[in-house]
Structures are given as C-alpha cells and as structure tokens.
Amino acid sequence: MELWSRVLLWELVLLQRPWGPATSDSSVVSESAVTGEAGSQAVLRCQSPRMVWTQDRLHDRQRVVHWDLGGRPGPARRLVDMYSAGEVRVYEPRDRGRLVLSPSAFQDGNFSLLIRAVEDSDAGLYTCNLHHHYCHLYESLAVRLEVTDHPRAARAHWDNEKEVLTAARGTAALLTCVNRAAVWTERHLEEAQQVVHWDRQPPGVPHDRADRLLDLYASGERRAYAPPFLRDRVAVGADAFARGDFSLRIDPLEPADEGTYSCHLHHHYCGLHERRVFHLRVAEPAALPSRPRTPPGPSPDPTLARGRSVVNVIVPEGRAHFFQQLGYVLATLLLFILLLITVVLAARQRRQGGEAGYPGGRARTRAPEPLTPSPSAGDDHADQKSAKAKGKDLNLAEFAVATGDQSSYKSENLQLDYKNNILKERVELAHSSLPAKNIDLDKEFRKEYCK
Ligand SMILES: *[C@@H]1O[C@H](CO)[C@@H](O)[C@H](O)[C@H]1NC(C)=O
Question: pLDDT confidence of 386, banded at 50, 70, 90?
C-alpha cells in the first residue's frame, strides 16, 4: 500500500511541476518580425483598448448586471438591471416588487434573481449578464425556468449546459447567479494598477536577461532606462494611456538597434497581462533599393482587432487556458501510462514472486519444459486465483498482460538489480490484497483526471 501511494505521489509531483507557477507570468499574444532600413523610422505596434485609462467619473457605474428573458417567440426582454453604484431598475410595472435583486450584489457577488410568485408566463430561458465596462469584460450565465402545477414536481437539475429549475405556480423561484471574482465585487482598486514596460534583448540574449527600456504608469509617471546610444531615439506617445497605444517609435533606426523588443501590458485590476514580441532587423538602405521609403512595421497590431470586440478580448486568455487544458490532458495521459506500467510491473512481480521460491530472489530461467518437478501445481492454482480476483479491477490491457502466454513469460530472464527490493516489498504487499490497491489508484487517477 505504502509503495503504491509513494509511487503515485512521485508521479503526481513530477507531473504537476511544469504547469505550476506559469500562471502569474504574462502571456505572449503576438510575435512578429520587423525589418527596418537604417536611417528610417521604425514603429513597433503595441496597442490595447483594454488599457485605456478611463477614470470613473460616473460614480462607479462601470459594472452592470442585467437579467434577460428569452427562449420563446420574440426578442429577449430586459427584465431588470443594476449598476454597481446604482439602484435596481425593473422594466415592467407588473414585475415591480415581484422580481428581486439583492442590493448588495456587487459587494457579495450574489447576483441571483428571486421571483416571488411564479406565473406561467415566467417560464423561459433567463440569462444573468455581467458587464464590466471599465475592464471590457462580459460574462453570461443561463438558467431555464419551467413552471408546473404540482408542488411535488418542483426541483432543479443540470442539463450539462445550464441549470433547469422547475417551480410550482405561485411559489418563489431563486435563479442562481453567483460570481465572487474580485473584479466584480471590489471597488476603488482600479487606479494606479496599469503599467507598461518595454524591454530589449540584444541579439543572443535570453528573455530573462532583457534590458528595460521604458516604464510607463497610468498616473503619467515615466522612467527611461535605455542605453545612451538608444535613449534619445525611442519614444512612446504622450497620450498612450488615453488611446491605449503604447507603440514604440525608433527614429532614426541604426544597425546596432537590432534585437528582440517586448511590450508588456499589465492591468492588474482587470487581470490583463500581455506581452508582444518583435524581432527587429535593420537592413542597409542599399539592400532595399526598389522599396518605397515607408516607415517599416506600421502594419496594424495583430492583436488589435481582437481588442475591439468584447468577445475577442477574451481570446488570448482563452488560448492560454486551452494550452493549460491541453497540458492537463497530456499530463493525465502520461500519468495513466505510468500507472499502467506500474500496475503491470507489480502484477508481474507478484506472479514472479510466486515462482521464485527462495528469498535470494534471482529469477530462475526456465526451459519451456521444466526438467525438475516444479512446485507450480500450487503456484498455478494461486495464479489462477489471483488472476480471477484481479480480473474485477484490472482493465482489459492489464488483464491481457496478466494472463498472457505463461510459457514465454516464464522463460524470460529477469536479472534486474531492483528485483530484490521489489521482492521485499512484495512480502509486505502480500498482506493486503491487490484489488483494493487498484481501486485506490483508480480513485486517485479519477481525482486527478476530473480536476
Ligand atoms: C443569494 O441571495 C439569495 C437572496 O437574494 C439567497 O437566498 C441565496 O442563498 C444567496 N446565495 C448565495 C450562494 O449566497
């Protein structure tokens, strides 16, 4: 038992490591190669509307929750909405006092809608919509409401996409919508949370040893660290935070400017951490004779189109999320393979232990037809018994190995160094039954898989 849990633990530890701390780092949202002519101007585009500095002059009205009712003929209808610093607004007169939103929703993250007395006309598809205008975030949650005559039929279940609530006519129904993420519940934190950095790696220098060129703060503070040869030629627009445009201008470009430039956008309050990477090459003017002398690189920021629509803003994070999910799936597969190998090895050891009758533990090489009368009459019986017992818990692949061709399996010469230790372990293991161990592993596996 102990061996198994130890093996499992190590496998889990080994598998977890690569995916552990990566989340706090900014994600690279674009990487591009830019070639500029020496003597001309280069522009490295770094833009994001999500970084636009819009101080809240409207008394914290940037967040709004609204409940809509759809899923029936005609367009969806706005039922009720509430700003983070405003009152609840109920749209239909007949719904006043009947539909209830908690006034403290933006403090406790509970945006649930209470319908005091359900009517037949209330049935439909409800959506709880959260908009964060300041951070350009949007989240939506659907709940289907069905109305029944029979109080006993009232229930709630999950249809794999949303909650389906069945409420008896005349009773109260609570449509649950809870989101306690800090961005929806905290106020007054958004100021001074925006920072932009520009880094430069001279050719051949890795990212972690990049030189800082510029720090820009939303408060207006700026710090320049560029090496003297570059300092007077790099600039970011003065209204960068007002326009969300942090593009770096290098004018005029010199051959020594070559290298990798990164633009880091951080909006801590909104959870935005993005990095755009530019590989800048400087060509001799003569090398590009036929090209018109247009400033190099002013192709639009490849991520800008994404930033313009609310849906797409989420894409970079979604991509990171996708890779994380992929990582988990691969990790799970790897874990499964390791488990399979462990189980198969253990099954073999157990069987072999039954064959190798003396504690010295050197595996005996058996001829296909044994010359000595073997004690295997009992052993075979034990094998069959254990195979029968294991059959319940081992999956097909394992079972196939466990009951594989006995003669070829017995003639294998297993002179491995670890054999003695494993035999020792086997004696300990023999006291607890194998199937129970398999169940444990299975559970652990499922736990890991379902995470
Ligand atoms: C949310 O608020 C409602 C009342 O508006 C309450 O009945 C419900 O229990 C709350 N849910 C949570 C998860 O706090």
Answer: very low
Residue reference for tokens 């039922």: 79
Q: 114 CB under 6 A from ligand 1?
A: yes
Residue-wise DSSP of 281-300: EEE-GGGS-SS--PPS--SP
Decide whether any atom of ligand 1 lies within 6 Å of the 112 Cβ: yes
* 310 ligand 1 Cβ < 6 A: no
pLDDT for 352 equals 74
- Tell me the H-state helices in 137-215: 182-185
Distance CA 352, CA 421 (A): 13
Tokens linked to 238: 């003065």
- Residue found by looking up tokens 């649930």 in the block: 112
Atom of ligand 1 nearest to the CA of 101: 5
pTM greater than 0.70: no
Per-residue pLDDT tens for 200-220?
999 988 888 889 999 988 877
Cis amide prior to 202 (ω within 30 degrees): no
Q: How far is CA 188 from CA 55, 57, 58, 84, in A?
A: 10, 12, 13, 12
In DSSP notation, 46-100 reads -B-GGG------SSS-SEEEEEEEESSSS--EEEEEEETTS-EEE-SGGGTTTEE
C-alpha 106 to ligand 1 mean position (Å): 13
Q: Is there an atom of ligand 1 within 6 Å of 110 CB? A: yes
Task: Indicate whether 92 pLDDT > 50.
Answer: yes
* 174 CB near ligand 1 (under 6 Å): yes
Which distant-in-sequence residues (6+ apart) come within 8 Å of 344 by Cβ? 398, 401, 402
Spatial neighbors of 382 by CB under 8 A, at least 6 apart, are 354
Domain boundary among 162, 187, 212: 187
Q: Kindly report the protein residue whose alpha carbon is nearest to atom 12 of ligand 1.
A: 110
Ligand 1 centre and the CA of 107: distance in Å?
Answer: 13
Do 71 and 162 have their domain in common? yes
Distance of CA 226 to the CA centre of its chain: 35
Domain that holds residue 173: 2-19+56-187
Give me the count of residues in the chain. 451
- Cα separation values, 199 from 44, 265, 371, Å: 12, 11, 77
**Pairing state between β 248-250 and 234-236:** antiparallel
Q: Is the CB of 179 under 6 A from ligand 1?
A: no
Encoded tokens for 122: 């209330």
Residue 256: CATH number of its domain? 2.60.40.10
State whether 141 and 6 are in the same domain.
yes
Average pLDDT over residues 139-155: 92
Ligand 1 within 6 A of 178 CB? yes
Distance 20 CA to ligand 1 centre (A): 34
